Amino acid sequence: MRIALFITCFNDTLYPGTGRAVVRLLERLGHTVEFPQAQTCCGQMHFNTGYRPEALPLVRGFTEAFAGYDAVVTPSASCAGMVRDNHAVVAEQYGDGELRRAVAGITPRVYELTELLVDVLGVTDVGAFFPHRVTYHPTCHSLRMIRLGDRPLRLLREVRGIDLVELPRADSCCGFGGTFALKNADTSTAMLADKMRGVLDTGAEVLCSADNSCLMHIGGGLSRLRTGVRTLHLAEILAATEGDPR
Amino acid sequence: MSSRPAAPHNVVWLDAPSFPEAARKALADTGLRRNLGRATATIRDKRLAVTGELADWEQLRQAGAALKRRTLRHLDGYLVQLEEAVTRAGGTVHWAADAAEANRIVAGLVRATGSTEVVKVKSMATQEIGLNEALAAEGIDAFETDLAELIVQLGDDRPSHILVPAIHRNRAEIREIFVREMGRRGRPAPEGLSDDPRALAEAARLHLREKFLRARVAVSGANFAVAATGTVGVVESEGNGRMCLTLPQTLITVMGIEKVLPDFADLEVFLQLLPRSSTGERMNPYTSMWTGVTGGDGPQEFHLVLLDNGRTATLRDTVGRQALACIRCSACLNVCPVYERTGGHAYGSVYPGPIGAVLTPQLVGVEHAASLPFASTLCGACYEACPVRIDIPQVLAHLRAEVVEAKRRGSAVPSAEALAMRTAGAVLGSPGRLALAQRAAALGGRLLGRGGTVGALPGPLRRWSGARDTPAPPAESFRSWWKRTREGGPEKEDGHDCP
Amino acid sequence: MTARDIVLGRIRAALADVPDDESPADVPVPRDYLRSHAGPDVVALFAERVADYQARVVRTEASGAPAEIARMLTERGVTDLVVPPGFPEELLPAGPWNRLDDHGPLGVAELDAADGVLSTAAVAIAVTGTIVLDAGPGQGRRALTLLPDYHLCVVRADQIVGDVPEALALLDPVRPLTFVSGPSATSDIELDRVEGVHGPRTLDVLVVDRDQPQEVG
Hints:
The complex is a heterotrimer. By secondary structure, chain B is of the alpha/beta class.
C-alpha cells in the first residue's frame, strides 16, 4: 500500500514534530510512508474566510501532489475535512471538469491519522508507552465534520502507562475557528477561558487532540497563564515508546 | 425588480454595531454571561434527553428536511393552493411583498374593526416587520402576551432569543420590570411581588387577563399552514396563544411564505421535531390549529397575510435557500458556543444565533450584515442540532465568500485582509516559496522567541497574542527534515525543534 | 401589478434552477421513521406521560367513572362547573355543583368566573401524553376548555393511540383542533419550567377503561 503523508502547511511550518511522529509510528507498524514534495496547503484558511477563488489553485495543487497514492494520511482533522467536504465545492464553483474528476477521485482516499490506523490498518494497540496524565479534546472538525467518533480514544486507551482522564464539556468548541480568533478575538478568548478551565479541572499534565491548530490556541492560553499543562498532538503520544519516550 | 426590502427594516437594528464590537460589550457583562450560561445549559440537557428517546430521530430529521425541500422547490404552487383552501374555509388571504406593505395591511384591518388595541401571540414575523411600532404610529396599541415578549415589551428592550426573547434577563430583573412597568400598561403588579418564577407567571396572568377578555382583535404568527386544507397552526405553552386565537372576533395571522407545508399528515413529522428541539419537551402544552372560520367557535373573521420581505431573495440562492427551512425552534442558539457567550443582542437582528447569522444577511443583503457570517467558529454544533438539517456551517462559509466578493466589488483598493490572503495564497501556491517562507519564519522565531514561544505579535496578530503565547517557528520545517534525512539515503538522526 | 403577482413572480424567478417538468412528488421524502414509539400498553404509557407534565391521571372502569369524577371535582373545590354540550349524561355524577351549560352561549366573564370544565376528548396520544380536542360532543367550542382554571378531561381508553402520526390520521383538519399536553406552562424565566399561566392551571385526566367482566368463581 502506497501511503502518502499530507503534513499540512501548518504542521510543516510550526509542528514538524507531529509529522516526524506520524512517520515513526507508521514505520514502526511496518508501513512505508512517502512525502510528496509538491504538497503545500489544502486551502482551508482561504475557503473558510471567504476567499474561494484564492483556494482554487491550492485545491488543484493538492490533487496533483497526491495523485496515484492508495491512501493519503494527514494528522489534521480539519484539513481532512476541508479536502473531503469542500474541495468538491471549490471545484464545482470555480474549476473545470478535469479538476472535478480529480477531486472526486482523490477525496475517498484521504484519511485522518486515526481513521487510517483503526479503519484501514486495523490497529488500536500501536505499542505506545506514555506514562502521563492525559486528557483528550475532540476538536469540532474531528467530532462533527469528519466524525472520528471514539477512534482517538480507542487508540489512547491502549497506550501503556497512560492515565487518561475525561475532559468536561469535551464536545464544546475551544474558540479557535481559524481567522475567527482574530476577527472575533474577544469571543474566542471567552471560549478559550472555559476550555482551559475544563482542562485544568482534570488535573492532566498533557492535553492532546487530533489537530495542532486548536492545540496552538488552547496551548497558547495555557502557556500564557503558566499553568504547567503542555499540549501534544495525538500522533506524538502514539509514537512514544518505552525505548523512545519523547 | 429587487425582492429585498429597499432598506433593511426591523430585521437588523439600524443602530447595531458590528458583531465583534457588540460581542465585546456583551462579554463584559458578567450577569448576562451567568444568565445565558445557566439557561442554555438547562435547555441543552433537556433537548438531548427527549431527542435521545426517539430511535428514529435521524429519520425524522431527514423527513423534515425533505419536506421543506419539496415545499421550497414548489413554493408558488403550494401558496396558491393554500390561498384557495383558506378562502374556501371563509378566511381572507393578503400578500405583502415587504414589511411596509404587511404593516399597512394589518393596520388597515385593525382600523376597519374600530378597535384601537390588539393582543398578540409571540411571532417572529411580526417582530421582523416591526409591526408593533407601525401600529403604534397608527394609534393602535399592540399588547404582547407571551411572557418573555411581555418582559421585553415592558422593559422597552429587544428580544435576544427566538424562543425565549428575555433569556438575557434573570428573575430579579424581571421582577423589577414588572413592578416598575405593569401599572403603566394596565393592571399593576401585585403588592409585594417576589422573584419566584411562579409569582412572576401569576403576575403576568393577572396583568393580561383583562386584556384577553376584552380583546376584539388578535395578531398572530404561524408555525405552519397546510396548503391542501388551509389549516394554520400555532405551537405554544402558556395558553396566551389559545386566548388570542379563540376569544377575539377578528384574527390576523402574519406568516412568512416559507411556512407552508404540503399536507396535513406532514405535521406528524414537525409536531415531533419542533417541541423536542425547541423547549426540550415531548410535546408543548398547547398546539392550536384552525381552518378558516368556524361558526360559533372562535374568531368569525380570519385574515392570513403572506409575507415575502426578503424571502424570495433568499430562495434565489441555491445554497442559502435551505435557511428558509427553519422552523424557529432555536436549538442552534442553545448549542452555539458563540451565542452562549455573547447572547442574542450582539447579532443586531431579530434573528440571532447561528440561524440568524445565515438568515439575516440573506433577508437584508450581505452588505447590511457583513459581520454575521463570520460570527461562528464553524464548529458544527448547530447543524448537528438542527431538526431540519440546515447545514448552517456550509451556508456561513458560502455567505463569507459573498461578503468578500461584495467588498471586492465595492472597492478598487484591496483591504489589508485581502492582501494578506493574496500573499498567503502566493506563498502556499508553490512548495519552493513555502520552504523559503518557512526558513524566514524560523529566523524570525529565533529572533523573537524565548524558550520556544513568542509572546507579543505585531499588527492585527496582537488580537491573538493578547491572550496566547505562540510557538516559535522551529529551526527545521518538516519538509526540510524529510529532505535532509530521507531524500539523501537512509534515516539519519531526528531534527530538533528548538535551536 | 398586485402584491400577489409580485411575490409569485419573484418565487418563480428564484426557482429558475428547478426543472419545469419537476413535480412535488419528484422531490423524494423518506418516510422510514416509526409510526409509533409506544409499546403495547398505550394506556399505561399515556398515564405515565401525562403525569410527567404535572397533571394528575386517574384510571377507572366505566362503572366507577361518575364516582371518580365526583371525587375529583370535590377535591378541587369546584362549584361552578362548565359542562359542554354532548357530554355523556351517564358519566355525570350528582353533586353540589352548579352546572353551566353553553346554550346561551356563556359569555367570557361567566367562563372566566367558572371553577372548572368537565370535557371529553377526540383522541389521546400516549407517547407525548397529549389529549386532542376537536370541538366535538362533550368538548364544545374552544373557549369552554380554556377560560376555567381547572380542566377535568375524560378519555376513554380506546381513544388512546400510540403516537402523533396515528393521532393525526384520525383527526379532521377542518375542525378547530387543540392539542393539550399538561397544564399551561412557561419556561420563559431562566428556562425554569413553571406550570400554570393563562390556560387552565390544573389539568386532571380520567382514563376510563371498559368494565371487566365479573369473574365467576
